[in-house]
Amino acid sequence: MTSLGVTSGGDPSQWHGSFDCVKCGRKRLPAVDFSANAVSKHRKDATKPMRCKQCTASAEETERALASTMAKLRVKESGTDTPDTTATHACSECKQSKPPTEFSNKQLIQKGPGKQRCRLCCDAGEANAAAVSKTSTELKLKQARDASAEAERTNDPCKVAVFAKEAALEAELVTGLKPRRMGGGRGRGGGVRGNSTLGRGGRSS
Question: What is the predicted pLDDT for the residue at 75?
Fold first, then answer.
């Protein structure tokens, strides 16, 4: 099978997009390499710098290490061997009381008591969300590609709509934009006229 714009069946992370990461310097990355929030902000303001998921995770790890180092320095300067255990905050998820170094400033200041989550719980939540998102994306792509293969094999009269659905999903991962239906009518054979930015070529009826 072939397609216009990208190769069908390819890994979304290998597709060329139009987003650049200001941290690692990689260019022409697809939207799937960035968080949905980062893509949304960039759509509203094209001058807003973007950091890919990989660089964001690395920066968070560096922030945690720095916070831990600073806490140890403060303890050393105070002349004590252990941190002040009275200055603790309760994590709303794991319910454990931890020192402020175990929380990000955002969680302590913006969220506050009753809503704040420690770094470990935040990291676990983000990792789980990323895994779920990746699994969901892979499943949707597999289902769309299987449907396209079956439509082509059986010469389904609605196969144009099936191909368009697969192409639209691929385009969404590259551009970060959800497809919009134009016209809303049906063509001959019951096929919905799509508005995908990517199409398939070289198909025979």
Answer: 58
